[in-house]
């Protein structure tokens, strides 16, 4: 990747925290952020995220791309530099390492976990031993 090329980011977990991270990453056009939205897909696709922040003011943020699944995010052949997981850490119910698998390209993809909990990285380390986490 050249130094002036925008990095490609895939964000899973577009709630309050995830939407703020996506917005700040995309600010200044240094990153192209694809956001996976589930229940809020239609609203975000048509209206974007409405952000009201004491630090940054009021904004409407439109991600570079809004998709309903990780599979859809990679269906056009996009290779992501970073995959950010901002979902609730519920390892007894969901395995987000499996969910993001189609978007992880070995050492070319860095996985960032923005979750609470202890030992949340274990499933990711086991599934992606060559990826920076």
UniProtKB/TrEMBL annotation:
Residues 9-132 form the Ketopantoate reductase N-terminal domain. One of its GO terms (cellular component) is cytoplasm. It holds the Pfam family ApbA. It comes from the Eukaryota. InterPro entries: KPR-Related, KPR_N, NAD(P)-bd_dom_sf. This is Ketopantoate reductase N-terminal domain-containing protein.
